[in-house]
């Protein structure tokens, strides 16, 4: 690809330069090939970023040349969808209206593309159907929707299974149990005053910094009208970055917010009354960048001494400057 022959590789003392702590590849200059030096785990290297690649430089001397090399890592289906819990528990009133929605925890699949999470399936039952959605970042989540009213006298408890499957071959799957306890009489579900809340938070904000407040109202009286708030997916990694006051709906910073790691977060919030009815909303948090990273300068190659009769334009050294801020 570079148009170099083996003689030039040898005479130029070709070598690889990488700023990474792990050298995944090795140059066989006598054969003109790159070989794998360390086992490459795509999930460890790139997470859910796709396409996954890493880059390094090859330097030759006499005369000095610099070539950029990029290696793309393709995914294999070596991970199954997994839930962080083995069961979920719902308390739902028998007067819950048809169409009532109940958020389900999400599965995580470290694979990407066709090998990643494809869909959710709900075990056969008479009362609920499954609706699937995708966030702006294409991560899939599901809701359980009531299609036939519950009857506590007929069946006070339901046992269901939520199955997450990926698109790989052979297909892999993960399962979580859903337990539904049927409660008596709660006529109105909480209703959020906004379906989507949008807010901007500066990276490196101190712990306990205020983010926003979500608000839902419930027309019921007494204990059935008391609303509590919580993250729909309590086991999500976002729970390490943000926290919510279950009584007021106020959201605060809990962990380290880094623009260079993620520029936007989406939190799904549930409001639940004492009768078990819920409504859901979404909080979209944009992260504002601050200048918290200094440029990093590295000298990749340097020629010394320099002959006094070197012509103008002779390459003396090669430096590389990087700054991860936007």
TrEMBL record:
Keyword vocabulary terms for this entry = Calcium, Cell adhesion, Glycoprotein, Membrane, Repeat, Transmembrane, Transmembrane helix
Report membrane topology: Single-pass membrane protein
Compartment list = Membrane
The regions listed as transmembrane in this protein's record are none
Q: Which coarse location class applies to the principal site listed for this UniProt protein?
A: membrane
Indicate the segments forming the Cadherin domain, all copies: 27-83, 84-192, 193-297
For this protein, the record's CDD domains field holds: Cadherin_repeat
Indicate whether Glycoprotein appears among the record's keywords: yes
Keyword Transmembrane helix assigned to the entry: answer is yes
Q: Protein name, please? A: Cadherin domain-containing protein
Task: Give the source species.
Answer: Xenoophorus captivus
């Amino acid at each position: 690809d570079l148009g170099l022959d083996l003689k030039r590789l040898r005479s130029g003392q070709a070598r690889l330069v990488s700023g990474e702590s792990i050298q995944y590849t090795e140059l066989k200059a006598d054969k003109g090939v790159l070989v794998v030096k360390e086992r490459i785990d795509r999930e460890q290297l790139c997470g859910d970023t796709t396409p996954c690649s890493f880059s390094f430089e090859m330097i030759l001397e006499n005369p000095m040349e610099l070539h950029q090399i990029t290696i793309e890592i393709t995914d294999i289906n070596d991970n199954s969808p997994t839930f962080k819990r083995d069961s979920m528990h719902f308390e739902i009133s028998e007067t819950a209206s048809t169409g009532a929605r109940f958020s389900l925890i999400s599965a995580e699949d470290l694979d990407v593309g066709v090998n990643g999470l494809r869909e959710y399936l709900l075990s056969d039952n008479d009362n609920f159907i499954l609706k699937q959605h995708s966030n702006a970042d294409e991560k899939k989540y599901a809701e359980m929707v009531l299609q036939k009213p519950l009857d506590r006298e007929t069946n006070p408890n339901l046992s269901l299974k939520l199955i997450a499957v990926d698109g790989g071959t052979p297909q892999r799957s993960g399962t979580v149990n859903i337990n539904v306890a049927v409660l008596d009489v709660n006529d109105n579900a909480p209703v959020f005053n906004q379906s989507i809340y949008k807010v901007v938070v500066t990276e490196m904000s101190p712990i306990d910094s205020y983010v926003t407040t979500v608000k839902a109202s419930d027309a019921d009286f007494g204990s059935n009208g008391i609303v509590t708030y919580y993250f729909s997916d309590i086991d999500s990694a976002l729970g390490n970055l943000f926290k919510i006051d279950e009584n007021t709906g106020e959201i605060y910073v809990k962990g380290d917010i880094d623009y260079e790691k993620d520029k936007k977060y989406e939190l799904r919030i549930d409001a639940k009354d004492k009768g078990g009815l819920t409504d859901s909303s979404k909080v979209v948090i944009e992260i504002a960048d601050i200048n918290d990273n200094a440029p990093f300068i590295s000298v990749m190659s340097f020629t010394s001494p320099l002959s006094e009769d070197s012509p103008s334009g002779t390459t003396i050294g090669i430096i590389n400057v990087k700054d991860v801020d936007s």
